[in-house]
């Protein structure tokens, strides 16, 4: 999710939105989304997370989310800014703290976002989020200035260079691509691409320690398909149906994004018999689809097999919509799904995750800010 600087992608409409969204999707493709170069970047991050986990030597871990955010932040950081950070780098820690300040607390999608008057009684969260935005803005501005100074048309390094180049081309010089939109689009992509992915991963391992049998079945499948001598690759995905179904079930039940970003009706219409006048703000509820008893049998039960048929083929895909639907569907879906699959399967391949104390009781009620995160929990990771 994003929608932060006003004139980027998330809160833009019409031609401006179209232009920036098209540009961003193209730029993400050019810089590796769907290509092996991106896979290599993600695998490098996994290696670093695995090193962090290994250093814990089976001791209690209570900051798994932070480890995951380092990985997801670095992937999007290298697409946009052209480089990654070592996991113990001070600037990376600061960046993650900033993102956390933006995303924790009641968000743009919760009651106070829709009824801003509630912000008056939630001043601390609002201040934290504003400070977070202003820090992130300064960070991005610094990089844009440096990119403009060292820009070389013959050597396009990343998203920012691509945008600067597009701005220069007469034919592209529209209100869609301009300096303010560059800043806002980067804010959107960066913010939307980091926390959503790491929160989903945080949920994933919570579900795995709650359901060790499911974890074991994923591990057996991965070992059978991949062996023990190499990492899991995207090309293995179609042979890892049970692992894929497990990730789908995790997304169905976790609902990292409970709602979509607010949409506006572009004309008078009718939905399920309700008249919706033009310009009405609509906020579709994704969680209501994922818990709909007319679609899912026992919707509250964790059961990856609901996504598999007898031949072990994936089914029921169309009813799972964690990235929303339609023209404003999440443009980061492909990137996010690659990250989720590679990080989840490779970490399960290498480690056994479990509760610190078998008597630990875990709650699966989420805490809703802009995204919905799992309540704090602890786990341990031991080499398999
Ligand atoms: C598990 C990870 C993710 C989830 C669950 C997720 C979910 C969503 C959802 C539900 C929306 C709202 C769609 C709507 O309003 O109908 C959205 C929008 C958006 N997402 Fe994601 N997202 C994820 C990862 C990413 C990544 C990795 C990126 C960037 C590379 C990204 C960039 C965006 C942007 C820019 C929008 C606004 C699109 C627009 O308004 O046209 N997201 N996302």
UniProtKB/TrEMBL annotation:
<dbReference type="GO" id="GO:0004497">
    <property type="term" value="F:monooxygenase activity"/>
</dbReference>
<comment type="similarity">
    <text>Belongs to the cytochrome P450 family.</text>
</comment>
<dbReference type="GO" id="GO:0005506">
    <property type="term" value="F:iron ion binding"/>
</dbReference>
<dbReference type="InterPro" id="IPR017972">
    <property type="entry name" value="Cyt_P450_CS"/>
</dbReference>
<protein>
    <submittedName>
        <fullName>Uncharacterized protein</fullName>
    </submittedName>
</protein>
<dbReference type="InterPro" id="IPR001128">
    <property type="entry name" value="Cyt_P450"/>
</dbReference>
<keyword id="KW-0408">Iron</keyword>
<feature type="binding site" description="axial binding residue">
    <location>
        <position position="330"/>
    </location>
    <ligand>
        <name>heme</name>
    </ligand>
</feature>
<dbReference type="GO" id="GO:0020037">
    <property type="term" value="F:heme binding"/>
</dbReference>
<dbReference type="InterPro" id="IPR050182">
    <property type="entry name" value="Cytochrome_P450_fam2"/>
</dbReference>
<keyword id="KW-0560">Oxidoreductase</keyword>
<dbReference type="InterPro" id="IPR002401">
    <property type="entry name" value="Cyt_P450_E_grp-I"/>
</dbReference>
<dbReference type="Pfam" id="PF00067">
    <property type="entry name" value="p450"/>
</dbReference>
<dbReference type="InterPro" id="IPR036396">
    <property type="entry name" value="Cyt_P450_sf"/>
</dbReference>
<dbReference type="GO" id="GO:0016705">
    <property type="term" value="F:oxidoreductase activity, acting on paired donors, with incorporation or reduction of molecular oxygen"/>
</dbReference>
<keyword id="KW-0479">Metal-binding</keyword>
<keyword id="KW-0503">Monooxygenase</keyword>
<keyword id="KW-0349">Heme</keyword>
């Amino acid at each position: 999710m994003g929608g932060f600087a006003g004139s980027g992608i998330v809160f833009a409409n019409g031609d401006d939105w179209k232009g920036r969204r098209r540009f961003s999707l193209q730029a993400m493709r050019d810089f590796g989304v769907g290509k092996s170069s991106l896979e290599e970047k993600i695998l490098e991050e996994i290696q670093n997370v695995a090193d962090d986990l290994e250093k814990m030597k089976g001791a209690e871990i209570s900051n798994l989310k932070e480890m995951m955010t380092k990985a997801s932040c670095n992937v999007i950081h290298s697409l946009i800014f052209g480089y990654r950070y070592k996991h113990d780098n001070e600037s990376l820690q600061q960046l993650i703290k900033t993102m956390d300040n933006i995303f924790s607390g009641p968000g743009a999608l919760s009651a106070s976002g829709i009824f801003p008057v509630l912000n008056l009684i939630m001043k601390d969260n609002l201040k934290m989020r504003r400070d977070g935005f202003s820090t992130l803005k300064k960070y991005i501005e610094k990089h844009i200035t440096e990119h403009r100074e060292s820009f070389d048309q013959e050597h396009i390094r990343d998203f920012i260079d691509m945008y600067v180049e597009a701005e220069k081309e007469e034919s592209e010089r529209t209100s869609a691509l301009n300096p303010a939109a560059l800043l806002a689009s980067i804010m959107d992509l960066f913010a939307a691409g980091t926390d959503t992915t790491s929160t989903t991963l945080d949920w994933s391992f919570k579900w795995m320690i709650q359901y060790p049998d499911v974890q074991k079945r994923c591990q057996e499948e991965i070992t059978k398909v991949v062996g023990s001598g190499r990492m899991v690759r995207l090309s293995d995905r179609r042979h890892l149906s049970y692992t894929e179904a497990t990730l789908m079930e995790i997304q169905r039940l976790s609902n990292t994004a409970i709602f979509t970003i607010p949409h506006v009706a572009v004309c008078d219409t009718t939905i399920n018999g309700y008249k919706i006048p033009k310009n009405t703000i609509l906020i579709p509820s994704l969680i209501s689809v994922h818990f709909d008893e007319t679609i899912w049998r026992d919707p509250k039960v964790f059961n990856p097999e609901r996504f598999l048929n007898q031949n072990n083929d994936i089914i029921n895909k169309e009813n799972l919509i964690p990235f929303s639907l339609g023209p404003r569907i999440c443009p980061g879906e492909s990137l996010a799904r690659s990250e989720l699959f590679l990080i989840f399967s490779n970490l399960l391949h290498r480690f056994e995750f479990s509760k610190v104390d078998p008597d630990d009781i875990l709650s699966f009620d989420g805490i809703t800010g802009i995204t919905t995160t799992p309540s704090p929990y602890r786990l341990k990771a031991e080499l398999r």
